[in-house]
UniProtKB/TrEMBL annotation:
Entry's localization field: Nucleus
Cross-referenced InterPro entries: DEAD/DEAH_box_helicase_dom, DEAD_box_RNA_helicase, Helicase_ATP-bd, Helicase_C-like, P-loop_NTPase, RNA_helicase_DEAD_Q_motif
GO molecular function: hydrolase activity; RNA helicase activity
Record domain DEAD-box RNA helicase Q: where: 24-52
Catalysed transformations (reactions): ATP + H2O = ADP + phosphate + H(+)
Motif Q motif location, chain numbering: 24-52
Organism lineage string: Eukaryota, Fungi, Dikarya, Ascomycota, Pezizomycotina
Location (main, coarse): nucleus
Biased composition (Basic residues): 574-591
Domain Helicase ATP-binding: residue ranges: 55-233
Organism from which the protein derives: Exophiala sideris
The name this protein goes by in its record: RNA helicase
Family as reported in the entry's similarity comment: Belongs to the DEAD box helicase family. DDX56/DBP9 subfamily.
Amino acid sequence: MKRKLDSNDAPTVEVPKKPAKGAESFDQFGLDARLMQAIAKSQFSEPTTVQARVIPLALEGKDILAKSKTGSGKTAAYVLPILQSILRKKAASQQTKAISTLVLVPTRELADQVQKAFTTFSANCAKEITSLNLTQRVSDTVMHAVLQDFPDIVVSTPGRIMQYMNSGRLSLENISQLVIDEADIVLSYGYEDDMTAIAAALPRDVQTFLISATLTPEVDELKTMFCHDAEVVKIDEKEEKGESVTQYVVRCAEDEKFLLIFVLFKLRLVRGKALIFVADVDRSYRLKLYLEQFGIKSCVLNAELPVNSRLHVVQEFNKGLYDILIAADEQEVLGGVVKRRASKTQDTAENAISDEDDEDESRPAKKAKVANNQKDYGVSRGIDFQNVACVINFDLPRTSKSYTHRIGRTARAGKAGMALSFVVPKDLFGKHKPTSISSARKDEQVLEKIIARQEKKGNEVKPYHFDMTQVDAFRYRMNDALRAVTRPAVHEARAREIKQELIKSEKLRKHFEENPDDLRHLRHDGEHGAVVRHQSHLKHVPEYLMPAQGRKGISADDIGFVGLRKSGSDDKRKDRKKRNSARKGRGPAKRGKVDPLKSFSAKKKR
């Protein structure tokens, strides 16, 4: 399963250079020279398919509904024409001092990401164009002062916008451009009432961008609510460049998931950065603590962590500081239906599986509001994870649509990637209670939908067979580690991490604004040594356990192997033998005085 890597440990693939439909370069759009400089600095060689088709329409002032896959460059497709429009109006003295562009996104992580895109592309015209992320955690006084300066662009979640509108600190009467990013999931996050109120407050002549990865009933609803005769830009999967995700599926027992994940990382079968998806928060900490038993560091990303910590974790993962990120995908959107939790009985939860899918888009989707701490959080959608070599579905999602969004975190920007999914066969479900999870009951049914969906796109989901005769040698180590990671230990680690991250989040908000260099020392992948009994012997792999061909890609340092004889021990033995011979008169005597303490012998003379 090894992939060819580049200098940054990211998988690469040779993608043939094909001109995008409508434009071969950004020069043909007639963009401002300052924007062209920013594009060149961002190393954008040519527009992607969605950019080539959306930007000309946007520059003409048309409403746009754009559907394109994750990672295809949709953000730049609306950021560039919006910046061009603002610069053009200001040059013609048509732009009054007011907020002119509103960008709505479902999550705070995506708001931060979009804000950075606006900042990057407007870097050379920062005096003319200002933007504000309304979801950032600063005091109300500071935010009110910034709003008084009337930034040109405001990026926010719908809920945050409504807070400021209801308090009278924000008005939408001068908005001329509206963007709804990830439009297919905005309503599923419980923002339906907010979106209705925002639509009523907007002027009638607003240019609207609806940006989505899929076309769902929610998108149609938003189109009716906000658009006027919108141009639909639907990019087929075959038109997308760089589609290069190699997909594998492993059928295994519940406890064997933990065995195989240990083998994958300890024996370096997966190189580069890995994103692991699990079903819930408890599961993420259990896996983190389990990997710690073997000296494998990882960090966790879930809805319980403070937003500043979540953003920082994503940033540091993208920089390459962490190699393994465990993401709890509790906020999994099931074709417009958010998973219902506490109100359902355990039996219902175990048998629950969504039939909503892209293949079934015509059915009206039910809506359920999300808990407050998860309302503006999402992992499988929106967040831009960079240079991900491998996506591992440790727990299979409940729909093929969620699967598609998960594996879309890799193979971005023309690079190759790998997706590996663990599937529990029905006859093996519930056989190992400590590692069992209710969602695995329907793994085989979900897998059938995944395979059918991928075949429609011309992709293959290949079975991968581990040589279990070699892997079984590590089973006793897996059992030792799992016994140490008890349920109370998981809960304690979870509570401790949240407490620590709350402190770090506060530091991120205050101290690190003035001391950005100190961020280098802030890590999120520390070990929970005080919580779980660590067994040091598990961090080393004895030579006799190594597979016959497993050592080829591994050095002794990589796996913590310690030999019986230290390097250079033969030379030391020879020197010791010479010294002993000299003392006994059987070898060349040393010059100079003899140290009585070193030459003293306790043997009796006969």
